[in-house]
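Marked as duplicate of an earlier ticket. Keeping the data here for the record.
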Amino acid sequence: MLTEVFSLAVDVGVPQSIGKDAAGERRCVPITGGSVSGKISGVVLAGGADWQTLRPDGLADLDARYMLKLSSGAQVEVWSRGLRIGPADVMAKLARGERVDPSSYYMRTAMRFETAAPDLQWLVQRLHVGIGERTPDQVRLKVYSVD
């Protein structure tokens, strides 16, 4: 069973391309801030990144690591691994930073959290799934606990 627990609005900077190899274009997208709201609330701290591989078949492999600072003062490490895929024209628009309808592509992540806060161990002790949307300057995720 999936239970929605919070939403993330992760601000992102300009993707930095490392170049293309046999696996595809490798790039790093800096995480510059953002917010979290729902069962937990707070901010996304600047300094994280989403390491991506844009494969020749159109699939984007996503691997993001960043930190949250909650309104309680607790800090939470986020590790999110997932994928984004859609029709070639939609993926090209996303790669150019254009806005597209999120129903026109698939973006999902498996999410893990780490924190020392005793009252947040429910985050650590469950796998979470993020259903995502990429806008020109944000990644928006609805985060669900897998119960």
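See parent ticket for discussion. The beta strands are 2-12, 16-21, 24-38, 42-44, 49-54, 60-70, 75-85, 106-114, 128-134, 138-146.
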